[in-house]
Amino acid sequence: MDNKKDDLVVVKGNQIINSSYKLTLVEQRIILGCISKIDSTEEFTEEDGFTIRVAEIKDLTTDKDNINSLYNQIKQGTNRLYERSIKLNDDDTDVVRWIYRKKYNDDEGSVTLYFTKNVLPYLTQLRGNFTKYKLQYVSKFKSTHSIRIYELLVQWLSKGSREVEVNWLKKTLGVEDKYQRTNNFIGRVIKPSIEDINTHSNISVKYGTRKTGRRITHLQFEFDVKEPTKKLKKSKFKGIGDKEVQQFCNENVSLTKGKSLDEVKMMMLQRK
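and the corresponding structure tokens:
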């Protein structure tokens, strides 16, 4: 592969994240895979295509389907993406298509998407008001709603909390015509998504509700980046024992003075 899965990063303008659109899980994986191949600091035109290989998508997921089945799913998903759109405002009067051209490259088992000139500015030359995360953090999610909710939360990660109106969230997720009872929406969309995010992503989330009168009108989320486990920390510093640390400190007194044990070990790793 040209890219390690750890290197694939999704960058989106916040207006896209807060907009209303509906994509299946497969369509999300294709879109996000192609977005992860964009250098968001560079200038591109609608003539530029962005390609993700099916094998790369397979490598990121835990799907039990064989590669041939995945090829078919992605081919069908690519065809559907041609008709998908984004509602950029609340009254649905500003609607744009994701892509204007798509190619399924049978010879190399890859997909190339060409984003419309209206969407491309939200993916390239971004200087502010954008959200960035590693593709691997959402690649194992079981629901497209999990991806959307994850993005809505990560957008506010520096604050660690976000309150949203139930009706706004339903519209943003493209399910405003479903789950008339809020408890059904919470049970079938919110809870599974939170479980997905807590199990597979880099953040942990808790949620609560706020009522207006007797009716639940708002959802409240609290979230933070997960602490690395002791096992991961131990693995990261494998091979660096007390003897090696002491020797390094003796040889770099001014550099290591006042530093914690983990900070010294990190210095040692960076010098390897």
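(Above: one complete record from the training split.) The chain has eleven helices and ten strands.
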